Amino acid sequence: MKRRPTITDVAEAAGVSVSTVSKAVNGRYGVASETVDHVLAVVAELGYESSLIASSMRSRTTGVIGVLVADFEPFSAEILKGVGQALRDSAYDLLAYSGTHGTAEGWERRSLSRLSGTLIDGAIIVTPTVVNVGTEVPVVAIDPHTGPADLPTVEADSFGGALQATRHLLDLGHTRIGFIAGRPDLRSSIARDAGYRRALGDAGIAVDPRLVGSGSYRQDAVRVAALEMLERPDRPTAIFAANDISAMEIVKVAGELGLDIPTDLSVIGFDDVPEASKSTPALSTVRQPMQTLGAEAARLLLSLMRGETPPATHLTLPTRLVPRATTAPPK
Amino acid sequence: MKRRPTITDVAEAAGVSVSTVSKAVNGRYGVASETVDHVLAVVAELGYESSLIASSMRSRTTGVIGVLVADFEPFSAEILKGVGQALRDSAYDLLAYSGTHGTAEGWERRSLSRLSGTLIDGAIIVTPTVVNVGTEVPVVAIDPHTGPADLPTVEADSFGGALQATRHLLDLGHTRIGFIAGRPDLRSSIARDAGYRRALGDAGIAVDPRLVGSGSYRQDAVRVAALEMLERPDRPTAIFAANDISAMEIVKVAGELGLDIPTDLSVIGFDDVPEASKSTPALSTVRQPMQTLGAEAARLLLSLMRGETPPATHLTLPTRLVPRATTAPPK
DNA sequence: ATGAAAGCGCTAACAA
DNA sequence: TTGTTAGCGCTTTCAT
């Protein structure tokens, strides 16, 4: 717990000025090579490391890329792995930040504001709650907010995925198919809703509004909606949830209600987070390439930071049906 | 890309001094409540957010906890989820940092030095390369370095896990069992090595040094070691790898060599990262509770930051054998 | 109750 | 080639 040496300590120990140390450490011109050697020796001896914070207050660039997430949950963790992979060979450090735990609307604006302009040279924001973030650094959004996207975005084909999921249930013979929606402010959630409706429409089935619940990706909300849906006499024989976490909560609620999965109720999710395949029974879902999402966002950001004009600033990656053990024909 | 408002902007717009704004925003005493209201209104209007960096340079505490990782790979991602979970209801923000991508020895000392004293109030370092980190903030190590642990640590029972893994192979009837070791500077790696040797010893089998390779948890090193081991005429019929990433690389190498898993070669890993169960064939492994590791580390750190003296500062969590499809009796 | 001023550790003109 | 100086945005005495 001893005090970290500062540039002043180094300067004193080396018998030179603070600015000389700064120059030596940062390899600026105009320092005698012997002086550099001497300073660096002192630096090594004292174990000096420049404070990222202090440096970033003065210099415009820090060599750090920030990933802003509402929370470190399975989805964002996968994204993070992808970003890490893409940045592995770059010179950038990676800083992931979860502020105020995404409880408040506009968490990303707040986080971005606190970090940008100084700490990070560019940012990737995951499932943001606002469209507009005025910043001084390039920003890429993953799974963006609804509304006009002035930000470069990377997302998965949610509409197509929802279509596949709902059709899968239809193909199995289900006709009463429920839907638990996600965060209504996310473009992806809306697309999943639309995909669900389209698939039903294509099959000539009218959407029963009592079979559509709002889950907002929050377990408590999902629970309420699922309970309400499953306790009614004409309950659905299958439910499509807008993400895996919601789907897993539905499975849990069904279990508490004494419903057998998939005999009494089929459930399908969206995302294919690692937890999906490990749950019992293994969750049927629609896979979105989360790590690739992260990697592509990183590549896009890097390109933006180099001042380039990337050919495409709105990427949509394909999704794929992954049927597992929670979907089966109705009784 | 417009400039973020600073405290000076707010002060000007509100017609008060910078210090008054600071006091108002931070709820300090000595400001008329009408002034506070007025200032806060301007703050809201301008969308001002204090710069984390600038604040942290002046105040000793920031309300941010840092997790330092070499890299955002599956293992550390799981840890991160656990830490996030444990901190969900705390008032702390979470900042995960991967600097210099763990390539250089002592990355965590460097990162810690750059962040601590200013940006973060406490840190969790994952698989550090050094024992000693002199800092101004409390630090907890997960999967710590070998050597006298002056740091509070949280780790899994690597020795017991390795014992289970090797015995599993023994029980299946294997007698020529190889081992690909991990990072030799990690206490856990050494314990896994020891567990392997103990299990063989207990079974009355001498350790064949040609059946022990060093992988250092790096894919290229693992590949070399695996190739060397598997190309010899008296190749092992089973290999225990010190972590899953290594094990998966071995499976890959075996495939290239035309060896069938698990018929020609059994492979078992360690960790049970999400990828293990998703690989084909599904990897047999020893599960360590990574998320719990992270959560416990967070709890320990929180307690330390409150100035408490926790009852135990060295936690060891249990591991569990998870046999899957890559282990079978020898031909 | 308010504001002026110092300074956190560092970088970048500018002077010497 | 080196050192001096002026801030970066903020918090915190200390005057007013």
TrEMBL record, chains A, B:
Pfam families: LacI, Peripla_BP_3. One of its GO terms (molecular function) is DNA binding. InterPro entries: HTH_LacI, LacI/GalR-like_sensor, Lambda_DNA-bd_dom_sf, Peripla_BP_I. Keywords: DNA-binding, Transcription, Transcription regulation. Residues 5-59 form the HTH lacI-type domain. Transmembrane segments: none annotated. PANTHER family: HTH-TYPE TRANSCRIPTIONAL REGULATOR GALS, LACI-RELATED TRANSCRIPTIONAL REPRESSOR. This is LacI family DNA-binding transcriptional regulator.
